[in-house]
Amino acid sequence: MKKTISINIAGLVFNIEEDGYLILKKYLDEIKAIFSSEEGVNEMLEDIEARIAELFHEKLNDSKQVITELDVTEVMEIMGRPTDYKVDGDESNDSNQNFQEENINEKTSKRLYRDEENATIGGVCAGLGHYVQVDPVIIRILFVLMVILGGSGILVYIILWAVIPEAKTTAQKLQMRGQPVNLDNIKDYVSGFSKDAKSGANRAAGSIKKSVNKSGSVISSILKILGKFIGAGFLIGGVIAIVLISIVFFGDSDLVSFTASSLGNNLNTFFDVLYPSGSSLMNFWSLFIIILFPLLAITSLGLKLLFNYKGKMKAPSLGGLIIWIVAICLFSYSSIELGMQFKSDYELEEEITNYSDSLTNLNLVINYKGNNIYNVDETEFWEVHDYFFIDDDKIEIGLPSFRVLRDSTIQDYKVTLIKISNGRTTKLALDNAKNIDYKPVFKNDSLIVPSVYSFSKDHKIRGQHVTLEIRVPLDKSVTLPETHKEMIFDIKATHSLDYDDFDHRTTWISSEGGMMCSNCILD
What we know:
By secondary structure, the chain is an alpha+beta fold. The protein has helices spanning about 20-35, 40-60, 70-80, 90-100, 125-130, 135-150, 155-165, 170-175, 185-200, 205-215, 220-250, 265-275, 280-305, 315-340, 425-435; strands at about 5-10, 10-15, 65, 345-350, 360-365, 380, 385-390, 395-400, 400-405, 415-425, 440-445, 445-450, 450-455, 465-470, 475-480, 505-510, 515. It has 3 domains: about 5-100, no CATH class; about 225-340, no CATH class; about 345-515, no CATH class. Helix content is about 45%, strand content about 20%. The strands form 4 sheets. It has a 6-stranded mixed β-sheet, with no helix packed on it. Strands 4-10-14-9-6 form a 5-stranded mixed β-sheet, with helices on one face. β16 and β17 (about 515) form a beta hairpin. The longest helix has about 35 residues, at about 220-250.
């Protein structure tokens, strides 16, 4: 029968034989005395005790609950003798060599841990690099490729972050590197770390890691990795957006088309025909700055989130903010001035009368320029704006609006050309309307109308528009061109229509019940 003692080592409680306890206590006291002058001695002792506790725990099972004197001796052989570090010079080296040869059979099993000391995000890639003996950069590249190609890299990283423990103690860090956990290696590791810390090489990184570890929150860790991916998104999205707006503002309109036809060389051409003379260039650059600077801010934020950039950007940011605010003020003022150019409007009507009085069916023929598609709404108002072109000296817009109405108060067709425009004053609006060039022509029983109208660039874009109104007396008709089959319209017809069958010219008769299609294909 032997006396046992209950001891606490590294937070674990063990029952140990009294003889073994005395040997262990002497062993630890010798280690403490030998390494008392070493930097980081407390951390070294904690790691040694943690390793001893781990080795003791491996020797216990259901049938064995007490640490024996033999167990203590075996653990001491694994850890190394403190007396090996008392001798200086060659004797010490010989002793250490003999000690290492004696313990060559110790199993040096490598374990997988997260390496927070060399981490970029959570230390997963650095830990995997130690485990498979591959440069962590290669593993990081593989994770990035997984994200780009399939998107699974984020989920895999988070799972590994959650299941792989962090290497916190010196013993764990040695196991992570596949090194035996003994006095020799613990001393070398702690001494090396102390020298690195003293030189300041890892001081800043260590401080950050400790603060993160103290927070210890899984949520904060997840937010950290999410911040990296959000930063990457901001960076990539910002760069793409900057390239796109550069193309829009300075590139050829064939690359970024605003309408079915060309606006000119770039957006500056459009500003030139929209804003009052002398202010178009200022507004062009103001709008560019208004859009560009927030994108630059987003891109900069992405860089900071992705690479943890802590540089001071106060002066450039403040200067950029001032320029941005000035650009907003200038553009806002000019936009208000532009709105004033549309304050008044004027409709100039011209009746077209040179057609035969005996005409009973008016044939509408459109002389097309560009690709145009009708659009008809419930007010029987036909219009399309599918053509816009800025020439050297004029602006062309198409298609004019066509309004076909039943009128029981007249005996002959009434064709009216309505020119509409805005201006800062009524006089300017009238002047803009007069400047619109649009000339429908009667030829026999046909009304030939151009598909576009135009006006001088000097008159700017001021809401110019042309409407051709055709009033049809009772029992007379109007024939529409074949292209109207693509219309979407709501017309008060006398019978149900299948609009998909409008693949030919159709004739509409003015009757008491409304406009009646005489040759539409019925179900």
